[in-house]
Amino acid sequence: MIISKESKFALVGHGYALYHLYHEFLKHNLKEPIIITHKKKFHLRDINESNNNKNLYRDIFELEEKTKVHYVSDINSQQILDILKVNKVTHIFSISSRFIFKDRILNKFKNKIFNIHGTLLPEERGSGTYTYRIMNKKYFCAATIHMIEKNLDKGNIILQSKKKKISKKSLPIDFIINTNKIYMDLIKKFSKIISNKKKINIKIQKEVNASYLPRFYTDRMGAINFQMDGRFIESFIKSCSKPYSGAFCYINYNKPLKIKIFNAKFIKGHSQHPFSVSYTHLTL
């Protein structure tokens, strides 16, 4: 498969990688892509959670100064089809998108919709990647550019990185920052392939190696079970840490008070009593 330099892309999603892919297309003299994204309220939340850290998140409003940004609520609507048609879009690249592409778009752009995913597919399909990695004590980052098809994260692989080890002290924010660096490398390669009219070698995913991670909603699923082993409590708290909303518990202070905890350290105690063998030092 060869993607022509004359191809017109729509970048769908938000964040660090979308911002840089837009500029990579311009850098390689490719056609300026259009931007389609979700409503502004979600961007404002992301900016707040990232504390405006440019290594973590690039807000979409920076691109408003350079090009037209379309804020929509449904990627599969007639409104989107009209936008794509008017702008003569031939390909779509999904980046950190909250949208799920359905038949209406998939059939219109068959084998012409791409996505970048922060794992080595077919491993770790789905979402909640960094939360689960910390809980499972898997300290590495990776990424894949693949085609989008009807089944989530099952499309053919276009480009893929190698595993990059990171510190065992890492929090989700560290996983995101390091994965963004890998995204940049793959984005540059993808842009060069188009610019140089090179053939894209497609790799079919092997189902025997597949695994799936369900979405993890920290604000609802981040409750700490202090009856668990102290080592797991430490990992669980770290896995819910920034930029997510934090693990939490409640204390009674006139009325139940919700306490958010963002870091912890397991320390093995010396008592022989079964209920005090260990404890976990918590950082609020």
Give your account of this protein's structure.
It is a single chain. The protein has 284 residues and is an alpha/beta fold. It contains 9 helices and 15 strands. It has helices at 16-27, 40-50, 61-64, 78-86, 103-108, 129-135, 172-195, 218-221, 230-239, and strands spanning 9-13, 34-37, 69-71, 91-95, 113-117, 125-126, 140-141, 144-147, 157-160, 164-165, 212-213, 247-253, 255-261, 263-268, 278-283. The strands form 5 sheets. A 7-stranded mixed β-sheet has the order 3-2-1-4-5-8-9. Strand 1, helix 1 (16-27) and strand 2 form a beta-alpha-beta unit. Helix 1 (16-27) runs parallel beside helix 7 and helix 6 runs antiparallel to helix 9 (230-239). The protein is globular. The protein starts with 8 loop residues before the first strand and ends with a strand. The mean pLDDT is 89.
